[in-house]
Amino acid sequence: MYRVLISDPLSEDGIKPLLEASDVEAVMDASLSHEELLKEISTSDALIVRSQTQVTRELIEHAPQLKVIGRAGVGVDNIDLDAATDHGVVVVNAPDGNTISTAEHTMAMLMSLARNIPQAYHQLKQNRWERKKFVGVELKNKTLGIVGFGRIGNEVAQRAKGHRMKVIAFDPFLTEEKANKAGVQHGTLEEVLQQADFLTVHTPLIEKTKHLINKETIQLMKPGARILNCARGGIVEEDALYEAIENGKIAGAALDVFEEEPAIDHPLLSLEEVIATPHLGASTVEAQENVATDVSLDVMDVLRGGAVKHPVNMPSVSSEVMEQLAPYFTLAEKLGSFLSNVTDGALEKVNVYYSGDLLDVDTTPLTRISVKGILKRYIGERVNDVNAYKTASDKGIVINEQKSTSTKGFTNLVTIEIETDQEKRTISGTLLNGLGARIVKLDEYSIDVVPEGHLIVIHHKDQPGAIGRVGSLLAEHHVNIATMQVGRTNQGGEAVMVLTVDKAVEEDCQEQLGGVADIQQVQCLTL
Ligand SMILES: NC(=O)c1ccc[n+]([C@@H]2O[C@H](COP(=O)([O-])OP(=O)(O)OC[C@H]3O[C@@H](n4cnc5c(N)ncnc54)[C@H](O)[C@@H]3O)[C@@H](O)[C@H]2O)c1
Ligand SMILES: O=C(O)CC[C@@H](O)C(=O)O
């Protein structure tokens, strides 16, 4: 049974898949104190939040069972992603479900800003019939500058065009061709700032976008321009905006988000030119239902070991690719684990080669799993698919992935090469049609070994009697041999024996094997 803690208010209709799942115990409480949250998270397998709960390193460190954090929405700036990755916790979000609601909210703010609707409404509610004071501007023929042309930016553009606005957009991923296709003008940040009558930001809040709209960039704008932020507080520097409105450079602003929320008694709210909503972009019945359903399904997929649709701290892989790769997962992990267990020295580099059926597939998830298999020898179960790459890079281990046309006669082949400060070792494996995973090569030796159970790898001289002596000694220790494979480079030269046995080999047995004539090295492992 998986325990899923939901610590922010979520649409109950939306999380139905979770509430109705027989393997899930859902705990919903949006009023937990910090201490209560620490207690609840300590026994939870999953946490689902919106934007209120601050998922800090402290919180993650109090959650030994935690496998996944789900964000019902887009922005993950309330989640410590590094801490989640360090602890192997998958973070998933629901990026699609609230796009339309937020784009529509931005349009509502744009029109309210142009026509002073909130201010006029407020006056009228005070029984004051003011008309002169609230003369607005038309949107038609005005230029809307969009910074951040992702899902929401694009939807806003399409709606603004419906109002016959001219749209100019800047986004590092926006090409001339994509802009043409979307029917907008492509500009640099400076051009967007210089041409906009209304400027709207739709970027995430990251280091590069923090205070992107500041005193200097506001200076580039037209006098009397207006600014909207329905993305994240902090993209527009609040002090600079306040000053620009006070000195008349900026005619008004519409804000749905603030650097610190809830924004109570905020200086910007004292300005008549500023209209605001309390982070309501995604607050529609439809959006809340969408994001709650999307995140519930992804969280359950992570818990049950399925493919994840919207991972934030892992690369996203399509379900078709996942389907193609899934049969190779065990092979990749076992090959990595086998090789690292027989390799001496401090790990420096891992090269993974794919060929045959794997030539044209995105094999990154397989490499990640191979690296997990390799690192398990050193850090045990703490390494998983999420933190494998980061753990390797934190330790200065270089990971390379390459495609190779050489199949060595197999329809598919995965080859892992490990370099340490002492040696370089290689292993190759394949999936045999209908027969499962096989190790087909260890260094220069061709073998045929099922990568599972208890294994003994013996390097020896290819001399008569060597195999018999190993068999007798194992029998003395009541170790039954299930399979035995011998590979050699040339008659009478170096050779390798790989045995699968029915129980783990004790240390004294391994030592005695090492002392047998013609035997050079004995390594025991369990996959
Ligand atoms: N107000 C709300 O309730 C609400 C609801 C949903 C989303 N959001 C926020 O809206 C924002 C946009 O969401 P989205 O779903 O469109 O995200 P998205 O990922 O689809 O789009 C963001 C775009 O910003 C661009 N970008 C990144 N850095 C940039 C930079 N320095 N300059 C220009 N562009 C840059 C990216 O390339 C991307 O195309 C996010 O911050 C999200 O958290 C707010
Ligand atoms: O949870 C919310 O209502 C806000 C969501 C929104 O800011 C987002 O980034 O998806």
From TrEMBL:
Task: Please list the GO terms describing molecular function.
Answer: NAD binding; phosphoglycerate dehydrogenase activity
Superkingdom of origin organism: Bacteria
**Is this entry keyworded Nucleus?**
no
Tell me the pathway. Answer: Amino-acid biosynthesis; L-serine biosynthesis; L-serine from 3-phospho-D-glycerate: step 1/3
**Keyword Amino-acid biosynthesis found:** yes
Q: Which reaction does it catalyse?
A: (R)-2-hydroxyglutarate + NAD(+) = 2-oxoglutarate + NADH + H(+); (2R)-3-phosphoglycerate + NAD(+) = 3-phosphooxypyruvate + NADH + H(+)
**Annotated EC:** 1.1.1.95
Q: Where are the transmembrane segments?
A: none
Which residues belong to any copy of the ACT domain? 455-527
The UniProt keyword set, sorted, is:
Amino-acid biosynthesis, NAD, Oxidoreductase, Serine biosynthesis
Stored PANTHER family? D-ISOMER SPECIFIC 2-HYDROXYACID DEHYDROGENASE FAMILY PROTEIN (AFU_ORTHOLOGUE AFUA_6G10090)
Q: What does this protein do?
A: Catalyzes the reversible oxidation of 3-phospho-D-glycerate to 3-phosphonooxypyruvate, the first step of the phosphorylated L-serine biosynthesis pathway. Also catalyzes the reversible oxidation of 2-hydroxyglutarate to 2-oxoglutarate.
Q: Which family does it belong to?
A: Belongs to the D-isomer specific 2-hydroxyacid dehydrogenase family.
Per its record, how is this protein called by name?
D-3-phosphoglycerate dehydrogenase
